[in-house]
Amino acid sequence: MEVNGDLSVEGFLFLDDGAYPHQKNQSASIAGRLELYHDILDNLSFSVEAYYRLDSEDDERSHGDLRLAELLYFTDTWEITAGFGRVFWGATEFVHLVDIINQTDQVDALDGEEKLGQPMVHLTVPRDWGVLEAFALPWFRERTFPGEKGRFRTPLAVDTDNTDYESSSEQQHLDLVLRYSTNLANADIGLYYFNGTSRDPVLLFSMDQNSKPILYPYYEQIGQTGLDLQLIAGEWLLKGEAYFRTGQSRSYAATTFGFEYTLTGLFESMMDLGLIGEYVYDDRNNGWLPTIYQNDIMGGLRLAVNDMDDSTILLGVIRDLDSSSTIIAMEASRRLGESIRLNLDASFFIDMDIHDPSFSLAQDDFIKLEIIWYW
Amino acid sequence: MNPLAVKTLIVSFLCAPLFFIPAAHSETAEEKGLAIAMEADRRDEGFGDYTADMMMILKNKQGKESKRAIRSKTLEVTGDGDKSLSIFDTPKDVKGTAFLSFSHKVGDDEQWLYLPALKRVKRINSRNKSGSFMGSEFAYEDIASQEVEKYTYKHLREEEFQGELCFVGESYPVDKKNSGYTKRISWLDKAEYRLQKVEFYDRKQSLLKTLTVEGYQKYLDTYWRADTMSMVNHQTGKSTRLLWTNYKFQIGLSDKDFNATSLKRVR
């Protein structure tokens, strides 16, 4: 049995007063992760990853999750996992459009990269011509949202006690997914079809029992065909994702694509500088359901110092082409000694357009310091 | 094989009788350099597959050290470059990170990185070969499978190095545009064709790094592998040592241990 994990402490400093009552300008939280791994047989193993966060301000952010609790069995020709799992699909760096298996743990990380464990049975059949995968997802995980006292929230906090579903099976709807992926000499391609409950809810307005206005999440049944692509073209790395979705009030498509180019040995040093340029388009913008990434361009610089502390600095800018809204994000990270990592993040929301859904973040410029101790 | 190579083969086959004049042709330095590289390569053929543990010790100018524990798996591919998989056990913040590489004799290698926190497989552009491998003094092109076809050669001389009579020769990267080197000077012992030392010259033709290889042991009575590889960067004063242990040959690895599916379940 292998046991490890990490313990982290983070502090947020917000540069402006919150837009809504009860929001504070500082918050702190601690989080812990416990990982267990055990080889029952040579080709049968069990892994668990349990996670808990305690937040000083937002009760919704104080939460736990079973990120992973799965059995894996494999043979030379197929493998199967059963339990709470995590699957990532995608190619681009800024927006992960096609990643659909796991629900986003929105309250845990604003960037959407933290995901909730998804109950699943997952069959993988690798062949010479590619990999076929089939998923049965018997239980739906609701997205997490910040509470009344949390930052990064909508003007009305989302009330997850009033969640509603299109399907009468609600959380018990059985979602099914098929995926084909393959590696060619200079390209990795994935194509899938998902049928089930949409991971991103529509937020609807209503009154709760006490006639207080609320927003509640409404999860629809969708069919989604998704494509992800990583392509090597000379010194360039080209990436693209796209999906076509049916089942909501009208069918629509969304896409994101871009490039990464790396300058190695910058200024005759050991440093590498990655240049990232991406674009995202979502066709719901057309007077129907505005989304944050409907017509946006993104630029990023990723500096890898290549020192013994693995220091990295990431600078990203997201600019809405239809309005003036601009988000600037910085992430600096280094190791301290052998088992501590230090992360310093900052985000600034500039000229946020009142018609843009991300306008609700306009007052949430922040600096965050995180210390993670791995054991 | 590309069409040009097929054509070359046919042409040389057709012309062969014309040049079949024994001992009339004295070997050039380039031919001898290539012949030595090919012989070294031939002597390592047939190993099949092996696994080994590597401790990478980074040392900066002030003498401060940092360690990375890596497990590696290698599969010999007949007629092409090897497949290899490196799995990081420490530092703990990168535990489970895995690097998969398919090297090719001709054309670009294929490389992927697996990031366990996100369960994400990322394609890497292998043309960034001059970049540092995990902050070490070894570049990606140094740790990649050393296929004969990736360099051109020139034999210089024979000299004694650490008690062994060695072939000393220069090699020049075929991919001049992306390599960090203009040339390498290598010392191979004449007895067993084992690499003893390499000097790396940067794009400005000045000495950048020296690799010394020590502690060779013979496995399966045929294949030589070293215990220690030390790379010293003369321009920065930094160095990296690779300490290899636990070599196991012919354990039955196959292509199935080197694909995206197996990458996602590495431990």
Furnish the topology, listing elements before pairings:
The complex is a heterodimer of chains A (375) and B (267).
Chain A: E1 2-14, E2 26-41, E3 44-55, E4 63-74, E5 79-85, E6 118-127, E7 130-137, E8 164-165, E9 175-183, E10 187-197, E11 202-207, E12 213-219, E13 221-233, E14 236-246, E15 252-263, E16 272-282, E17 295-304, E18 312-320, E19 326-336, E20 340-350, E21 366-374
Parallel strand pairs in A: 8-12
Antiparallel strand pairs in A: 1-2, 1-21, 2-3, 3-4, 4-5, 5-6, 6-7, 7-9, 9-10, 10-13, 11-12, 13-14, 14-15, 15-16, 16-17, 17-18, 18-19, 19-20, 20-21
Chain B: H1 3-15, H2 29-43, E1 49-59, E2 65-75, E3 83-90, E4 98-102, E5 110-115, E6 120-124, H3 140-143, E7 151-161, E8 164-173, E9 181-189, E10 195-202, E11 207-214, E12 217-219, E13 223-225, E14 228-233, E15 239-249, H4 260-263
List keywords for this structure.
heterodimer; A: 375 residues; mainly beta; Porin; 18-stranded antiparallel beta barrel; 3-stranded mixed beta sheet; 0% helix; B: 267 residues; two-stranded antiparallel ribbon; 4 helices
Mean of residue pLDDT values of chain B:
90
Main sheet of chain B, how many strands, which sense, barrel? 13 strands, antiparallel
Judged by helices, strands and strand pairing, the structural class of chain A is mainly beta
Q: Sheet bearing the most strands of chain A, described?
A: 18 strands, antiparallel, barrel
* Total count of strands of chain B: 15
Percentage of residues in helical conformation of chain B? 10-25%
Instruction: State the CATH architecture of chain B.
Output: Clam
CATH class of chain A: Mainly Beta
Q: Strand fraction band of chain A? A: over 45%
By DSSP (H or I, 4+ residues per run), the number of helices of chain B equals 4
CATH topology of chain B: outer membrane lipoprotein receptor (LolB), chain A
Q: What is the rounded distance between the termini of chain B?
A: 36 Å
Which fold name is given in CATH as the topology of chain A?
Porin
Q: What is the general shape of chain A?
A: globular
Spans where pLDDT lies below 50 across 5 or more residues of chain A: none
- CATH class of chain B, named Mainly Beta
What percent of residues of chain B are in strands? Answer: 35-45%
- Rg of chain A, rounded, reads 21 Å
What is the count of structural domains of chain B? 1
